[in-house]
Design goal:
The complex is a heterotrimer of chains A (150), B (106) and C (248).
Chain A: H1 7-13, H2 29-40, E1 45-47, E2 50-53, E3 57-58, E4 64-70, E5 80-87, E6 94-100, E7 104-113, E8 119-127, E9 132-141
Parallel strand pairs in A: 1-9, 3-9
Antiparallel strand pairs in A: 2-4, 4-7, 5-6, 5-8, 8-9
Chain B: E1 5-7, E2 11-12, E3 17-23, E4 46-53, E5 56-63, E6 72-78, E7 83-91, E8 96-105
Parallel strand pairs in B: 2-8
Antiparallel strand pairs in B: 1-3, 3-6, 4-5, 4-7, 7-8
Chain C: H1 2-17, H2 22-25, H3 28-35, H4 42-53, H5 64-68, E1 83-85, E2 90-92, H6 94-105, H7 116-127, H8 143-154, H9 164-170, E3 175-176, E4 179-180, E5 191-193, E6 198-200, H10 202-212, H11 223-235, E7 246-247
Parallel strand pairs in C: 5-7
Antiparallel strand pairs in C: 1-2, 3-4, 5-6
Helix pairs in contact in C: 4-7, 6-7, 8-11
The chains are: A mainly beta (150), B mainly beta (106), C mainly alpha (248).
């Protein structure tokens, strides 16, 4: 266990700035586009069907509750095969790939994710008819999770 | 590692969808942090997760370091027959773990 | 003007009479995580504590359950801690009490501070008092320790020359950098902190606050540390136990 001095105290008290850990590399929009292309094979993304739920204001980026899913029932030929989530401001563009099997009850999942900073999160749903649907949320992280510092 | 906390209804009606919730104890070390000597801490995350029910797949996921420590997952299954719901997950150290619960379908 | 001052004074007394839990200062997400036992990661530790509770250990080969029965028999206990130990003639924290049972009754080695095992057992015992009002004894033999703890709380220290009271009384409700300064009550430990991404004890939280003001951290078992924990419990009277709490 390691207790690094919290930089928030330093900022708050106006004392000399502590050397901050180097900001980790961030995924770029191009990285995210490439990660999405790896799923869609370049097929167009349409807005709609899939809904991404995240808080707009995040207190601590270490654990942010996220729900993603397709609520409206679809005919079998168009059913949702998988859901994918991407982060534009994290060190890596991928967050999760989820696949729904024959015993799935609904194409939906909830989990908790890490967000290094304020950014846009993108969800993509892949359907059995070869279409891809997308939704995104832009959110503000008031206290960035100190990725280098616990 | 302690066992995960798994939550499923004890009984469900045939044909109904029901939620499965699982909380797994795991640090999900992202591979992006450094220790107090400035050395990178190696990545150690659960990278894959699978849930089957009566031997058939319900849900499968690939996790990345953006999944929080002590991963929490909720997803949905459809009640077909009474049987076993099995969870399997594998981390970067190659350790595959599993756990299971029984469900009664009426 | 006089009336306003009087009103402010009254408000201040009211504020003092009704302490505000860190739960109320946390955002809706953090509160939701604490409220849902299936989603609260603290329950991973509770579960581990429950497994240890019934496992025989030490050269006495006794489990906690052998002597105490079901963990629920300890309902109300955590709400009274830190409590005075007549033999040691000083207050001990709940974690120290558990370790005393390990060494004295199980003839087993004490569990390391911040170990999953000790956090787990402490969380299990703490959970049995969840929802009960903090009922620590401020008088009797505890009194001089409460006074020492309060003295520590009000003494400026560290390079930043701040006391706990400077932040948690005078500036509670204000922001420090991005963080809201809570009243700093200790009613949910051990707790799961998102910042730590794990469970931690009050001692760990206090070390972080002390390092924050560039002061010497307290050794976990130093008498000052227990006195401070005792005073924090005294000033939290009016709140209920929230273990295992979740905080940002």
């Amino acid at each position: 266990m390691r207790l690094a001095p919290s930089r928030r105290f330093v900022l708050g008290a106006g004392a000399a700035l502590l050397a901050l850990p180097a900001t980790p590399a961030r995924a770029t929009k191009a990285d995210v586009a490439a990660a999405i292309r790896a799923i869609t094979g370049g097929a167009p993304l349409r807005p709609g069907r899939v809904k991404l739920d995240l808080p707009l204001l995040v207190e601590n980026g270490n654990a942010v509750a996220m729900t993603v899913g397709v609520a409206d029932p679809l005919p079998a030929a168009e059913r949702v095969l998988s859901l994918h989530v991407f982060a534009e401001g994290n060190p890596l563009p991928n967050v999760i790939h989820a696949y729904f099997g024959p015993r799935s009850g609904a194409p939906r999942l909830a989990t908790r994710i890490r967000l290094a900073t304020s950014q846009t999160i993108v969800a993509v749903a892949a359907c059995a008819d070869g279409t891809f649907w997308t939704d995104s949320v832009e959110l503000l992280v008031t206290l960035a999770a100190c990725i280098d510092d616990l | 590692m302690p066992r995960p906390l798994i939550n499923v209804p004890k009984k469900v009606k045939r044909g109904d969808a029901f939620d499965i919730r699982i909380l797994i104890a795991h640090p999900m070390e992202s591979g992006q942090r450094r220790d107090d000597k400035g050395q990178p801490i190696p990545r150690e995350i659960i990278h894959s997760f699978l849930c089957t029910y009566g031997g058939e797949e319900v849900f499968r996921a690939e996790f990345f370091p953006a999944i929080s420590a002590n991963p929490f997952l909720t997803f949905s299954a459809r009640a077909v027959d009474s049987g076993q719901i099995v969870f399997t997950w594998t981390d970067d150290l190659g350790a595959t773990q599993f756990d299971s619960v029984e469900i009664t379908v009426e | 003007m006089r009336r306003l001052a009087l009103l402010l004074c009254l408000l201040a007394t009211v504020a003092q009479a009704a302490p505000r839990s860190g739960y109320d200062d946390a955002g809706p997400q953090v509160r939701a995580m604490q409220d849902d036992d299936d989603a609260n990661p603290g329950f991973l530790w509770v579960q581990q504590g429950a497994a240890l509770w019934s496992r025989p250990d030490g050269s006495a080969s006794k489990s906690c359950a052998d002597c105490h029965g079901d963990a629920s028999t300890l309902r109300g206990v955590a709400a009274r801690y830190p409590a005075f130990d007549a033999k040691l003639r000083r207050p001990v924290t709940l974690a120290q009490r558990i370790n005393l049972c390990r060494t004295d009754h199980q003839a087993a080695p004490a569990l390391a501070p911040e170990s999953d095992a000790l956090l787990g057992l402490t969380a299990l015992v703490g959970l049995q008092s969840r929802g009960l009002p903090i009922a620590v004894d401020a008088g009797g033999p505890n009194r001089p320790f409460v006074e020492a703890g309060e003295h520590f709380f009000r003494t400026r220290q560290g390079q930043l020359n701040l006391s706990c009271a400077n932040c948690h009384e005078e500036r509670a409700g204000h922001r420090l950098g991005g963080a809201l300064i809570p009243e700093g009550h200790a009613n949910g430990y051990p707790q799961y902190r998102l910042e730590w991404q794990t469970m931690g004890s009050l001692a760990r939280r206090l070390r972080a606050c002390l390092i924050g003001v560039r002061a010497e951290p307290l050794a976990p078992d130093a008498p000052d540390a227990v006195a401070l924990e005792l005073y924090l419990a005294v000033r939290a009277r009016g709140l209920t136990v929230e273990t295992p709490a979740v905080r940002p």
